[in-house]
């Protein structure tokens, strides 16, 4: 009788051996259901021969229950699961769960709902409704697809659904996605773009592992350029994965994709409905989905025939996952490409220092787009020294920015003010007793959001109504806002320029794709004069009429002892500056700072990227930081402060003593209380030692922790 070793989706269990019943044909990667105690468990057949360490005779093993009808996970994906678990010190089962997640493989309904005209007429005809009814003749699809076809909002269609003019129909979940046409509309590329595109097209044709850093200034047309190898992969019948850092960015991308390929790509992100996920998962595993655009989790999908990976805005922090399996999608994408033996393109105007180092040392191929497309100039950047140009009391905008805004408004051009703080004010207190509003679950202040009249914790999501009276002293009407958030800046602009049309752009206001699309449409049609936004607006957006960018507080990101603070400040400010002057009119950038001489601020002002990266590289070398050394964090947490502290101290007692390995801590983690759990942290710096993970695993595995204690390892942590 055959026996197999199963990777079961239960992180507490190791691989388990089973026998294969007569007539069931399994191979490595097959997804199966197996008995486990009184229940069943989903598993992946991991090994089919040489099962060392199990002497139980095959007859004594329990037989597999059922073979799940999805294609077996291919060897490159199985290697990726193993590598990810090993590198990030995670359980194999936790990584495997990301692959099979979302019910894609595991049962669930086999139909989904689509919509079409019923033949009825609405109670009241409006121009929008008429457009919808005329545009949807003979069409069928999801509300989203139909809205695209008819060129009306989803809200209009939902209204028609409520009136029975549009009716739901159940369709099979494996309905294919419309094919992309690689030659639908090929733009004329500039000379630089063409050279880069040709290199990438050749790499796709050669089909071997080839990591590429596409380093192109903002507005150079990186998207148009990497669309060429995407087209080539489609022609060759291979799949493409494009990773984007933010859902809000997807809208803009989808429009451009459709213009180039005549149809939208297949989407993968956390706000898909479960039927949409199942449909996508299946189409991806069977190979019928061609181009998949997704958030980082799309990296772990079971592509049947992957030919190219593109990571756009590859420097973005949001590619780092900070709970569960703590992985960095940028790094994992390179490994996936390696196991699949295909090219991977990391595209950015401000690459991560690690990526640039790999390119400079020849590990990655460096392809550059040094100028903006269509002759647009990079914007002029000026510093505003806040120690000299003091804003009025209780205000945050200095005279030069106010003056520049005024100019733009009188010329009918757009402006963007950047401040990386959501809400109205970062801290709210009682004028009477000094009470500060703090999150009960986190060591963080509650942030006032006036637009929604709420106090919110940005760490655990807790929200409460803004109280009428202070909960401490009972005094009414006593709350004072301390410091600025984007909403407060928007208020200030509104008071200065009462006629200006102002939009706040943050994850609160653009959190879902529909609202993001609406915002983009408004900005493009010049229905907005001034955008006030967080890091969300630093990326990807292309508004040709935007000619002024004001950075409200460039020093904000430099506070705190974060290893990557300077790099992140550089990236954010350079990216947001890159939103200015992308069309025919030149752009201007004003950066408010109290430290005009800080190296990163000076580099931004001089446009001296090379100097900044060179200085930063030396600082990292001295600190033994990546790419010259490695960092890891170990976080122990518990709902009980004492339990967490004692577990950390006990772990600290057996800390490994090795040359070139430095262990700091335990100390309270920067967020010492997070979501109701007290957190202690070790920071580990390995100057050379290649086996950092092994050292950490041996150290931790030698301990048993009480059930209330969670131990998490963060390899290459982002925020310290
Ligand atoms: P980046 O991502 O490098 O900042 P984009 O890809 O957003 O730049 O390109 C900037 C703008 O120039 C976009 O509106 C894009 O459509 C346009 N563009 C770039 N290359 C071309 C081209 N070859 N033909 C037409 N338009 C282009
Ligand atoms: Zn909280």
TrEMBL record:
Listed binding positions for Zn(2+) 2 are: 439, 442, 457, 460
State the EC number(s). Answer: 5.6.2.4
Among the Pfam families in the record, one is PriA_C
* Enzyme superclass (EC): isomerase
The answer to keyword Zinc applying to this record is yes
Q: Which domain of life is it from?
A: Bacteria
Q: Which PROSITE patterns match?
A: HELICASE_ATP_BIND_1 (PS51192)
CDD domains linked: DEXHc_priA (cd17929)
**Record key words, sorted:** ATP-binding, DNA replication, DNA-binding, Helicase, Hydrolase, Isomerase, Metal-binding, Nucleotide-binding, Primosome, Zinc
Which stretches make up the Helicase ATP-binding domain?
A: 203-369
Catalytic activity as recorded in UniProt: ATP + H2O = ADP + phosphate + H(+); Couples ATP hydrolysis with the unwinding of duplex DNA by translocating in the 3'-5' direction
Q: Where does Zn(2+) 1 bind?
A: 430, 433, 470, 473
For this protein, what is any one GO molecular function term?
hydrolase activity
Is the keyword Phosphoprotein assigned to this protein? no
Q: How is the cofactor bound?
A: Binds 2 zinc ions per subunit.
Cofactor(s) listed: Zn(2+)
- Assembly with partners or alone: Component of the replication restart primosome.
Task of the protein:
Initiates the restart of stalled replication forks, which reloads the replicative helicase on sites other than the origin of replication. Recognizes and binds to abandoned replication forks and remodels them to uncover a helicase loading site. Promotes assembly of the primosome at these replication forks.
Q: Which family does it belong to?
A: Belongs to the helicase family. PriA subfamily.
Name recorded for this polypeptide:
Replication restart protein PriA
Query: From which source organism is this entry?
Result: Erythrobacter ani
Higher taxonomy? Bacteria, Pseudomonadati, Pseudomonadota, Alphaproteobacteria, Sphingomonadales
């Amino acid at each position: 009788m055959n026996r197999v070793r199963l990777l079961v989706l239960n992180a507490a269990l190791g691989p388990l051996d089973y026998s294969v019943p007569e007539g069931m044909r399994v191979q490595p990667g097959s997804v199966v259901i197996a008995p486990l105690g009184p229940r069943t468990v989903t598993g992946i057949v991991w090994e089919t021969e040489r099962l060392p360490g199990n002497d139980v005779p095959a007859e004594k093993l329990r037989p597999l229950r059922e073979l799940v009808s999805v294609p077996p996970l291919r060897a490159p994906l199985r290697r990726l699961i193993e590598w990810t678990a090993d590198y990030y010190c995670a359980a194999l089962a936790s990584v495997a769960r990301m692959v099979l997640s979302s019910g894609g493989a595991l049962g669930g309904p086999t139909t989904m709902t689509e919509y079409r005209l019923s033949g009825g007429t609405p109670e009241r005809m409006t121009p929008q409704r008429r457009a919808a009814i005329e545009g949807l003749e003979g069409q069928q699809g999801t509300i989203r697809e139909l809205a695209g076809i008819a060129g009306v909002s989803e809200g209009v269609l939902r209204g028609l659904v409520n009136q029975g003019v549009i009716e739901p129909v159940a369709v099979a979940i494996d309905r294919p996605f419309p094919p992309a046409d690689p030659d639908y509309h090929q733009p004329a590329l500039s000379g630089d773009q063409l050279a880069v595109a040709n290199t990438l097209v050749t790499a796709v044709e050669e089909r071997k592992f080839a990591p590429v850093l596409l380093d192109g200034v903002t507005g150079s047309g990186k998207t148009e350029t990497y669309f060429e190898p995407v087209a080539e992969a489609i022609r060759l019948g291979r799949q493409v994965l494009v990773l984007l850092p933010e859902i809000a960015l997807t809208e803009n991308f989808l429009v451009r994709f459709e213009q180039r390929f005549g149809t939208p790509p297949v989407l993968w992100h956390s706000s898909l409905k479960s039927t949409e996920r199942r449909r996508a998962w299946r189409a991806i595993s069977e190979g019928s989905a061609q181009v998949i655009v997704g958030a980082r989790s799309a990296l772990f999908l079971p592509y049947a025939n992957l030919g190219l990976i593109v990571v756009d805005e590859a420097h973005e922090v949001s590619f780092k996952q900070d709970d569960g399996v703590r992985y960095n999608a940028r790094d994992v994408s390179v490994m996936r490409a390696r196991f699949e033996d295909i090219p991977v393109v990391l595209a950015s105007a401000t690459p991560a220092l690690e990526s640039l180092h790999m390119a400079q040392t020849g590990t990655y191929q460096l392809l550059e787009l040094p100028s903006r497309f269509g002759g647009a100039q990079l914007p002029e950047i000026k510093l505003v020294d806040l120690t000299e140009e003091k804003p009025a009391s209780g205000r945050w905008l200095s005279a030069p920015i106010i003056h520049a805004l005024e100019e733009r408004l009188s010329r009918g051009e757009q402006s963007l003010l950047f401040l990386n703080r959501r809400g109205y004010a970062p801290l709210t207190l009682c004028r009477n007793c000094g009470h500060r509003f703090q999150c009960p679950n986190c060591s963080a202040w509650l942030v006032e959001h006036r637009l929604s009249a709420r106090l919110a914790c940005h760490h655990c999501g807790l929200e409460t109504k803004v109280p009428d009276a202070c909960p401490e002293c009972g005094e009414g009407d006593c709350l004072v806002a301390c410091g600025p958030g984007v909403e407060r800046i928007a208020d200030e602009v509104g008071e200065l320029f009462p006629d200006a049309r102002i939009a706040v752009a943050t994850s609160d206001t653009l959190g879902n794709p529909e609202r993001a699309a609406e915002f983009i449409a408004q900005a493009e049609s010049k229905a907005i004069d001034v955008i006030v936004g967080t890091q969300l607006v630093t990326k990807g957006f292309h508004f040709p009429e935007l000619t002024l960018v004001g950075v409200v507080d460039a020093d904000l990101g430099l506070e705190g002892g974060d290893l990557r603070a300077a790099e992140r400040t550089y990236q954010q400010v350079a990216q947001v500056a890159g939103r200015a002057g992308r069309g025919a009119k030149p752009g201007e950038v004003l950066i408010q700072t109290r430290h005009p001489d800080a190296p990163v601020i000076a580099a931004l002002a001089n446009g001296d990227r090379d100097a900044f990266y060179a200085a930063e590289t030396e600082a990292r070398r001295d600190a033994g930081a990546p790419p010259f050394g490695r960092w890891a964090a170990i976080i122990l947490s518990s709902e009980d402060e004492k339990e967490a502290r004692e577990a950390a101290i006990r772990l600290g007692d057996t800390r490994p003593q090795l040359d070139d390995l430095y262990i700091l801590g335990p100390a309270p983690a920067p967020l010492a209380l997070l979501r109701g759990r007290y957190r202690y942290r070790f920071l580990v710096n390995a100057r050379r030692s290649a086996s950092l993970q092994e050292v950490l695993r041996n150290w931790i595995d030698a301990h048993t922790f009480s059930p209330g204690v969670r131990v998490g390892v963060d390899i290459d942590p982002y925020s310290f």
